[in-house]
Amino acid sequence: MSDEGHRGNDTGRENVPSRQRRRFPGISSRAYEHPADRSALVALRKLSGFDTVFRALSGLLPERSLRLLFLSDSVRVSDQQFAHLNDMLRDACYILDLEKVPPMYVTQDPQPNAMCIGLDEPIIVVTTGLVELLDEEEMRAVVGHEVGHALSGHSVYRTILLFLTNLAIRVAWIPLGNLAIMAIVTALREWFRKSELSADRAGLLVGQDLKASMRGLMKIAGGNHLHEMNVDAFLKQAEEYEAGGDLRDSVLKILNVLPRTHPFTTVRAAELKKWAESRDHQRIMDGHYPRRSEDKDTSVTDSFRESAAHYASGVKSSKDPLMKLVSDLAGGAGDLGGRVRRGFGGFTGSGPAQDQPPRNGSDPADGPDDTPPRPAD
C-alpha cells in the first residue's frame, strides 16, 4: 500500500498523498498493456541493439531542442513549483515502482493535453488547460497515465517511430512512396491508439478510482461541466457508436479514426471500464502480476498469439455492422452480395435491396447488373 508520509530513498520520493493505495513492487508494464501494444513492444525489446542504434542517432532528432524549450519556456514541477503535481508524480512512480522519477513540466496551452517523450530519459509535459480542467483525483489518473507510458518505454519507441515516419516523408518522391508512407503512418497510429489504452489502465492502477478516471475522460470530451454530464449516458454513447448504423457508418468510423493518434474518448471510457471489471485487473490488485525481472524471458510468439486472439475475440463480440459481417463470413455464412447490399441500405438509402434477375433476352449492359458488388479493398 502507498503509505502516508512515506519517506523515499535517494530518488527523492516523499510526502506521498495520504489516501491508502495498493502499490505494485517490480510490476512489469506487460501487466496492464493492451495485447496489441504488448506484442509490438515485446518484439521491439527483443531486437538486440535496436535502441542503441537510434539513441546514437539522437542528434538527428529534435529531442535536445524540446528539452531546452521546456526548460526555458515552461514551469518545471518540483517541491517549489506545482507541488501538488510533484506529489502526484512521486506517488505514481512509487505505486508502479518506477525507480527514476521523470522530469515534469507545465506548459502554457489552453488545450487540455499531456505527453511523455524522450529517448535517453522520458519527460512528462502537461498543459495549463489540463491542470485547470481536472480535479486532484482526475489529475492523478492522468499523471499515472503518463508514468505508465514511461514504464512501458512508449516514449522511446514513439520517438523512434516518429523519426522513421519523418524520414519516410522526406523520400516521398520515390515511386510508390506515398503508399509506403501511408502504410507506415497507419500502422504507427494504430499502435499509438493501443498504447493510449495501455496508459489509461496504468492511470487506473495509480489512481485506483474508476469514477475519477471516467470523470476525467468526460471532461476531456465535454469540458468542465460535470453537473451537465452523466457517466452512464456517456458510456451509452460508446455502445451506440459501436452498434449503430449500417456498413456505411462502419466505413466512416474507420475513415474518422485513421488520422487520430488517440482513440475516441467514449471508446476509451468503455474500454477502461471493461478492463476494470475484468479478471486481469482483479489479479493485479490481488498482487498477482508479471514482474519486470521476467521480461527477458517473454516469448514474442506468445505475445503475437495473444494479440491475434484478442483481435479475433473483438471481431466476434463486436456489434459493429462491418465486424458482424466479417464474423459471419468467417463462420461460413453465405449470401455475401445480398448482405453487403442490405448493409449499405441498398445503395440508395431506401431500405434493403432485393436481388433482381436479369431481364429476359436483355444484355446485362442495358439493364441492372445483379452481380454481387465486390467489397472495397
Description:
With 377 residues, the chain is mainly α. The protein contains 16 helices and four strands. The protein has a four-stranded mixed sheet with strand order 1-2-4-3, sandwiched between helices. α6 (136-152) crosses α9, α7 (154-170) runs antiparallel to α8 (177-207) and α9 (210-222) packs antiparallel against α12.
Principal-axes geometry comes out as: globular
**Element-by-element helix/strand order:** HHHEHEEEHHHHHHHHHHHH
Unreliable residue runs: 3-18, 347-377
Please tally the helical runs, counting DSSP H or I stretches of 4 or more residues. 16
* Radius of gyration computed on alpha carbons: 24 Å
Estimate the mean pLDDT confidence: 75
What's the count of strands? 4
Q: Strands of the largest sheet, in order across it?
A: 1-2-4-3
**Span between termini:** 52 Å
Helix content: 40-55%
Search tags:
mainly alpha, 16 helices, 4 strands, 55% helix, globular, disordered C terminus
Secondary-structure map:
Layout: H1 35-46, H2 50-56, H3 63-73, E1 75-76, H4 83-95, E2 104-107, E3 114-117, E4 123-127, H5 128-133, H6 136-152, H7 154-170, H8 177-207, H9 210-222, H10 231-243, H11 247-257, H12 265-276, H13 279-285, H14 300-317, H15 321-330, H16 336-343
Parallel strand pairs: 2-4
Antiparallel strand pairs: 1-2, 3-4
Question: Can you summarize this structure?
Answer:
By secondary structure, the protein is mainly alpha-helical. It contains 16 helices and four strands.
